[in-house]
Amino acid sequence: MEQKYSVPALDRAHAVLTLLTEEPYKWKLSELSKHLGISKSTLYSLLQTMERLQWINRDRNETYALGSAVGDLGSAYFRQYDLIEEFRRMAEPVMRKMQESVQLARLDGSEVLYLTKVEAPTPVQMVSGPGVRIPAHATGLGKSLMIDMDAEQVSRVFPQESLHKITVHTIGSREAFLQELETVRQRGYSLDIQEGVMGFCCVAAPIRRLGTVVAAVSCSMPIHHWEGKKEESISEICSLAKRLSTNI
């Protein structure tokens, strides 16, 4: 990536974390300053912020080590891949039974980020592979990922009242989206009827870990399959989401 887009404070924080990973509780502020070539005043502010965020800990000897937040992030990173593997194993029989593709995604800002997909052997497919992003308000997955959000949280995700309409069926306002979320909460699952892609419908449900929504699963299909498979797909996706959810 071009250097003009780099953030110096993050580069410095990365250098500190890398050093503390290798040698915890060895370095004091003055030694870190000299070793990393960062002024004491700049480093002091950086370390104070990192300590407040629990990225680092400081002991009675004024030396530093990695903090609990770094451990939490690392655990979350590996849990994500555990979830992907669990999804692939559990979604395969759902795909075979429904003969429709099943997706796993998480929320990234105001977008749905697709993590993986168990693809059905059908000639007509919705573009939803790993790395694909779609505005959250235009998908069943987005609705399920935001199912627990209140009006204030939704406003932070969507600062503008007007929402971009991808198709004629896409929800076009934040107020309408909030109303849709209330319906989703009552059902426990969400629907997308040609809102993200014309000609496709889907059902989605949230995956919770320790009560928090961490991802969502969905089954998408061409609209001409929808009426015949709607009820079964709702049942299968809700069951899959429940099996992927844990209290630990």
Could you characterize what this model shows?
The chain is α+β, with helices and mostly antiparallel strands and 248 residues long. It contains eight helices and eight strands, in the order αααββαβββαααβββα. A six-stranded antiparallel β-sheet has the order 5-4-3-8-7-6. The chain has a two-stranded antiparallel sheet with strand order 1-2. A hairpin with a 6-residue loop joins strand 6 and strand 7. Helix 2 crosses helix 3 and helix 4 crosses helix 8. It is elongated and about 70 Å long. This is IclR family transcriptional regulator. InterPro entries: GAF-like_dom_sf, HTH_MetabolicPath_Reg, Tscrpt_reg_IclR_C, Tscrpt_reg_IclR_N, WH-like_DNA-bd_sf, WH_DNA-bd_sf.
Q: Can you count the helices?
A: 8
**Overall 3D form:** elongated
The total count of strands amounts to 8
Task: Sketch the topology as an H/E string, one letter per element.
Answer: HHHEEHEEEHHHEEEH
Structural class call reads alpha+beta
- Percent helix range: 40-55%
Calculate the terminal CA-CA distance, rounded to whole Å: 38 Å
Q: How are the strands ordered across the major sheet? A: 5-4-3-8-7-6
Strand content: 15-25%
Mean pLDDT: 90
Spans where pLDDT lies below 50 across 5 or more residues = none
Main pleated sheet? 6 strands, antiparallel
What Rg is obtained from the alpha carbons, in whole angstroms? 22 Å
